[in-house]
Amino acid sequence: MTNLTAPARPQIFERLTLAALGLLLILRIIAVIISPLELYADEAQYWRWGQTLEWGYYSKPPMIAWVIHLTTALFGIHEWSVRLAAPLLHTAAAGLIFLTGRAMLDARAGFFAALLYALMPSVVLSSNVLSTDGVLMPFWCAGLYLLWRLRSGEGRWASAALLGGVIGAGMLSKYAMLYFLIGLALACLIDAPTRRAILTPRGLLAGVIAALIVAPHFAWNAANDFATVSHTVDNANLGGDLFNPENALTWFADQLGMFGPVSFLALLAGLFLYRSRRGEEASPERWLLCFILPVLIFILGQAVLSRAHANWTATAYPGAALLVAIWFSRGTALTLWASLGLNLLVAGLFMAMTMLPPASTTDLGLDNAMKRTRGWEASAQQVFAEAERLGATAVLVDEREAWHGLDFYARDRKLPLISWRRYAGPKSFSERQPLEGAIAERVLIASVHADLRPRLRSDFASFEPAGQVRIDLGKRGNGCPISRVFQLYIGEGYNPPERTREWENQFIGEMEFPEPPCPTAAYGG
User: Fold this and answer.
1) pLDDT of residue 463
2) Cα(239)–Cα(324) distance, integer angstroms
């Protein structure tokens, strides 16, 4: 007897994927719109970049600024409009992962892979804020899908042209797209169908298109002292102690949080069991490993050498979601359901955290985790009110994060906002504008670092205390208050000494107005 339900099964998983991703998208957009969280410093920085469209910016390629420029042009300047693209981009990435899984195995594998990606803890967090990883992911996932189509003999010239386009756009999103090129090279080495698809005129077309898209960005870098490239090199932090094996444990814990505990352990178990698999059936797995292992191994090495942020492995996990889904959907899906269930629970908790009012986060002991996204509007209002009251010609801050927070929330200000240069030249985007000319006549210094104030004092002939601005950000778990404190000074006679090692060393150990330690006993600690 013919099984009339069998042909419908792929359609069931297609509909389930569409429904699940659509529901998640709606919930995430709602969460972004109603979230009480203010922008954190990097988001405010990307917004500032987007005010002028360039082919590059100080520390990142331009795509994220272009995206924010588009959403804020359409919907006005709000926290939610800066972040609006995040859930849309991750949903697009998950949809492309479904298409890749369906092409590699079947719609069932695509369904599981898409949800494994969409419910990853890191993706849940990244869907509520806009980051370069979120902007990169749809291009990375599109690259996997288009390359697999080329490998399978589908699409041909159209797929090749689109592949070049998404590789170029990925490079304009984040330099981590270079890992895709490494994976592509490895796939060509070990996989004959990929080699036959890429080492052809179609592969050349993809390369030419990618190069044409990226060329203006590198031309911008060449005209701007390779600002973006040099920042990326500096971020590797390879100038200090170059052997820290204890960081491997931190890396492992980070990956449990990035991919999800069950998902990551399933990936490791699958890698161990994979050694016994041979033949054509294993070729999709070998192919995917080309786009997973180089990222994980390189970042683990970086962590042991120096340091590595948890999100630096982000590009490994679209392929990992596909790999785990293919491995475990062939037999029992218990591991997949367990991973999805735990990730869904975590996703719900994360989403709820972003929507909680301050009183609730205090009761739950979450204020310390939220402090970077609080109090910036109040900070901007009070600092610039003091500047006007005191007749300042500019406001000077001594922290990059403070500059970006004040910059966004005082975007209609009349006074210049300057970021103090501790070193001879600018070390961040916030330091691009120097303090010079008429704006340096009577400066309100809003300092957040007690150990930098003696250095700041040395830049001015007159440096008089002018009070402080204290912003309540909640309480720590032990009851101690969390505050953002701007110690205020009026500085006149700006004449900074040469930034030499001798100048720097003379202030070691010196502080002005340090915050007293919290008397934890008084708070029940």
Assistant:
1) 97
2) 37
Three-state SS across 395-450? Answer: EEECCHHHHHHHHHHCCCCCCCEEECCCCCCCCCHHHCCCCCHHHHCEEEEEECCH
Torsion, CA 296, CA 301, CA 305, CA 310, rounded to 10: 10
Closest CA to 19 of 89, 118, 127: 118
Distance CA 193, CA 481 (A): 61
DSSP, collapsed to helix, strand or coil, labels residue 365 as: coil
DSSP assignment of 90-102: HHHHHHHHHHHHH
User: What tokens does 303 get?
Assistant: 């962590």
* Nearest CA-CA partner of 263 in 137, 121, 126: 121
Read off the DSSP letter of residue 374. S
Tokens of 152: 């399978």
373 token code pair: 């996204």
pLDDT computed for residue 6 by the predictor:
42
Residue found under tokens 């310390």: 368
**Nearest by Cα to 347 from 113, 16, 117, 108:** 117
C-alpha separations of 203 from 100, 147, 157, 158, 233 in Å: 19, 10, 9, 11, 29
Q: Which residues of 324-344 are buried (b: 16+ CB within 10 A; e: fewer)?
A: bbbbbbeeebebbebbbebbb
The SS3 call for residue 106 is coil
Rg of the chain over all Cα atoms, to the nearest angstrom: 26
What is the spatial distance between Cα 264 and Cα 255, in angstroms, rounded to a whole number?
7
Dihedral angle, C-alpha 392, 394, 399, 403, nearest 10 °:
120
Q: Please write the tens of the pLDDT for every residue from 237-274.
A: 555 556 678 888 999 999 998 998 888 988 998 887 76
How confident is the model over 380-401, as pLDDT tens digits?
999 999 999 999 999 999 999 9
Q: What pLDDT score was predicted for residue 336?
A: 77
Q: What is the pLDDT of residue 2?
A: 38
Mean pLDDT for 171-199 is 96
Pairing of strands 460-475, 481-494: antiparallel
